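Dear Dr. L.,

I hope this message finds you well. Following up on our conversation about the binding site, I have prepared a predicted three-dimensional model of the protein together with pyridoxal-5'-phosphate. For your records, I am including the exact sequence and ligand specification that went into the calculation, followed by the structure tokens. Please feel free to forward this to your student if that is useful.
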Amino acid sequence: MRYLSTRGQAPVRDFSSVLLAGLAEDGGLYLPETWPVLTADDWRALRGLPYPDLAARIIAPFTAGCIAPDVLQRLCRESYAGFDHAAIVPLTQVEDGLFVQELFHGPTLAFKDMAMQLLGRLFDHVLAERDAHVTIVGATSGDTGSAAIEACRGRERVKIVILHPEGRTSDVQRRQMTTVLEPNVTNLAVQGTFDDCQDLVKAMFADAPFRQDMHLSAVNSINWARIAAQIPYYVYAALALGAPDREVSFAVPTGNFGNILAAWAARRMGLPVRALCVGSNRNDILTRFLRDNDMSVQGVVPSLSPSMDIQVSSNFERLLFELLNRDAAACARIVTEFRQTGHMAVPDPVWRQASGLFHALALDDQDTKTEIRNLHAASQYLADPHSAIGIAAGRMFREPGIPMVAMATAHPAKFPDAMEQATGIRPALPPALADLFDRPERYEVVAARLDVVEDRVRAAVLKNA
Ligand SMILES: *Cc1c(COP(=O)(O)O)cnc(C)c1O
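The resulting structure of the complex is given below.
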């Protein structure tokens, strides 16, 4: 499989190169040159497979030519071996026609582990083959960073530097990152928002000499391999609920548009997906876009669901590229203008397609707490604030006879204050993280300035080089 950039000015690459590169040199995002499409019989043949084997089968077309299928299967089995639920991605019914799929049974209790555990292993495999080293640089609004650090800690060929917005992640989220003391891990607390962090990471990648000297690589949701690794759980849920002989809908709490893009990809691969529902918090750029074709940046407002406190959903560029029938020049023009003006002028036919494909619901913090409380009262299900938003979106757009699956993206114990306010219950951390608040932390506070951050990355790379 070969990959091309959404902006059309970067070389076409294979899977391993895309894995290591993350962002394309032209600032675009990589997508597969062609989409693998499965027939109804192909889908049926996947029914009943254990999750890791199903994942390997779904991901295989994307890694074809780079990773042997038996290696991929081994990596998938290793990736999910440490999950604390036998089903890996268990499905629970919470209401008539409304299901929850829990994606938070990995080491950091959030859905990012689903992709990141595999990514760490893919990096190891590809770097060993090439006898190479990389420096992973990433921005996180909470969960990406800890999942990336957890996937990379102690790995010989990888240094990892994670930027998080100071004071804007939950204590649990911060501590999951800053209590990892392996020397290949560096945490930077940036005085700014998540978007500032993301802009700094993008700027480092745009600094070609720096990027080359430091062997920069990304594992945030612009990395194609992460999207690929998120497709299988949609397939798993759909097959369990009757696909390909029955349609299924999905509701996804959304920030960077990565998780829901994987649902879209599953649909593009021929899975009978009916509705795709986006849930967001007060940072509702996607909802405004899908309702009114208003993609305009407003300030980021902190919320109870910090992993969705995002105004620029990077992965949207991939959808835009597809909806523009892969017109890279048009895509580059629209996205560049958006970066300059803060307003995205999406052509009307493209917007109509998008708003026909996706439903959207935004919940403020008050409504999120009400959703958590009502759901718990009615079905004893404890959903964290992110998951609750997805569940509310799923309920709103569910249709008779079509199962709606809402993605539960974080364990409620990651957000104990919000849970307690909503339900009076303070969920306990699972045993593996029970002493999190007793562990020492290590991180540096830095200004949101490129030169400052590049200095810190350089120091991290030189350390024990
Ligand atoms: C990252 C994250 C999201 C948002 O996912 P995207 O892929 O950025 O849309 C939602 N919920 C939780 C708990 C997350 O960690």
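In brief: The pocket of pyridoxal-5'-phosphate is lined by residues 110-112, 143-144, 221, 253-259, 307-308, 386, 409-410 (CB under 6 Å).

With kind regards,
A. P.
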